[in-house]
Design goal:
globular
């Protein structure tokens, strides 16, 4: 058993670390955005928090739809069905492009609706143009995700890592030029951060498309897919997995975004402090999503081979790995809360609020990491419908009402919102764990 568990850890780490680095790079850019925007002022940081909180709902929904590609590719790769892989690849890219374009247009038109969220007017005025720039960036991002999920399904996790890390360097460099107006560039403030994000995301699909052409393991499918016809049935197979994944992400991240809106009801400083805590929690979340992606690939491969003993080994190795890492992160959040908060802003009251929130966030991110990895393992088995009602019940029926009760009715303020979220996410993690344990045991019989 020790040998099997060690082998499981090794396989997961080899698959996960490129995805983790890629995801970490993305969130570190988000943290850099927050830190660099925070140097302009508290209102600008609050506007960034508002726009990103709403945008995050939709970008994760789009990402979830593309997640329908990975388990199908992994299962087909497990049985070496080359035609099926090419067919999934073709339809996955088409779906990614159409979904990205559709949501980009929707968000551009809906940007003025931010006024209806009962936020400070000064915050909304800055948030709308920034939000629209983010909306345009959804098109290249979605296409990149389509290519990325295809390659990760083939266990080629490094190409997306290299591209994401290089794109992040572009983003940070452009932030420095466009936010502050250095080296003769226009000083665009928050809009400069949005433009930097758009340019760096536009680079990504072109770069990964070139790598698909250059890597023989992926290029062979590109040639083959050109000869295949478009099939509604094949598109439906991807969407049957992708849409439930997207809906689950929608409810999960929608809960976090609505929590940010509730923070705005408390005040600009609370919203800015929440953005600091959420930015740091997102670091551990992205590590967990990397391990989750590895769990999807590993479990999907074993599910295609009907090897349920190795499937359970992969799933539980992923879970114990992410739990260990999130516990380490919790200690960093608790004992480094003041230092971490000082990295973002100079406002002493915002720093004080953020420091207290980071202690609560330390426990929240453990529950969050556990549930996201189990969802990845379930996705590898094609079980995507069950997590959706879990998400609705745990986040929206339990977590958010408790957050409102604690913060508004019991007058616990910003801390009360994080209490409610922690309870909701812990319940989700427990229920999803029981689901994976039961399904994987059934396959052993």
């Amino acid at each position: 058993m020790l040998f099997n568990r060690s082998r499981g850890y090794k396989n997961i780490i080899l698959l996960a670390y490129p995805v983790c680095l890629s995801q970490l790079g993305t969130v570190l850019v988000s943290i850099a955005d927050s830190a660099m925007v925070g140097q302009i002022g508290t209102v600008e940081l609050a506007a960034s928090s508002l726009a990103n909180s709403v945008f995050f709902i939709f970008i994760t929904f789009v990402t979830g739809i593309t997640f329908g590609i990975t388990p199908l590719i992994a299962a087909a790769d497990g049985t070496k069905n080359l035609t099926e892989i090419s067919r999934i690849f073709k339809h996955g890219i088409l779906i990614s492009a159409i979904v990205g374009l559709g949501f980009s247009l929707l968000l551009w038109k809906a940007a003025p609706s931010l006024r209806f969220l009962n936020q400070p007017e000064a915050v909304v005025e800055l948030a709308i143009p920034y939000f629209r720039t983010l909306a345009i960036s959804l098109i290249p991002y979605s296409i990149f995700q389509g290519y990325r999920q295809f390659m990760e399904g083939l266990s080629l996790t490094k190409p997306a890592m290299y591209i994401s890390l290089f794109s992040n360097l572009i983003n940070i460099g452009l932030n420095y030029l466009l936010i502050y107006g250095n080296f003769g560039f226009p000083q665009l403030g928050l809009n400069g951060a949005g433009l930097a994000t758009l340019i760096s995301r536009t680079f990504m699909p072109f770069a990964i498309g070139i790598l698909v052409l250059l890597i023989p393991q992926s290029f062979c499918y590109l040639k083959k897919m050109m000869r295949l016809r478009i099939s509604i049935f094949q598109a439906a197979k991807i969407l049957n997995i992708g849409i439930p994944c997207g809906i689950q992400f929608l409810f999960e991240n929608g809960a976090l975004s609505f929590a940010a809106i509730m923070m705005g009801w408390l005040g600009t400083q609370e919203l800015a402090a929440h953005q600091i805590a959420l930015s740091l929690v997102t670091v551990t979340y992205m590590i967990a999503t990397g391990i989750s992606a590895a769990a999807t690939i590993g479990v999907g491969n074993q599910f295609g081979r009907r090897n349920f003993r190795r499937l359970r080994e992969t799933g539980f190795s992923s879970l114990s790995l992410t739990t260990s890492l999130s516990v380490v992160s919790a200690f960093i959040f608790i004992f480094g809360n003041h230092y971490l908060s000082n990295l973002f802003v100079r406002d002493s009251q915002v720093i004080q609020i953020a420091s207290s929130l980071l202690v609560l966030a330390a426990f929240f991110q453990i529950f969050d990491s556990i549930q996201v990895v189990i969802i990845g393992a379930l996705r590898g088995m094609g079980d995507v419908a069950y997590p959706t009602p879990i998400a609705i019940g745990s986040y929206w029926i339990l977590g958010l009402p408790l957050a409102y009760t604690f913060s508004q009715l019991l007058h616990l303020g910003a801390s009360g919102i994080w209490y409610g979220l922690s309870i909701g996410f812990s319940v989700a993690g427990g229920l999803l764990f029981l689901r994976f344990d039961r399904l994987s045991k059934q396959g052993l019989r």
